[in-house]
Amino acid sequence: MSHNFHNEGNIGRVAFTLVIIGALAWGILGAFNYNVISSIFGEGILTRAVYHLIGISALFVVFRKFFREKHTH
Question: What is the DSSP string of 20-51?
Answer without folding.
Answer: HHHHHHHHHHHHH---HHHHHH-SSHHHHHHH
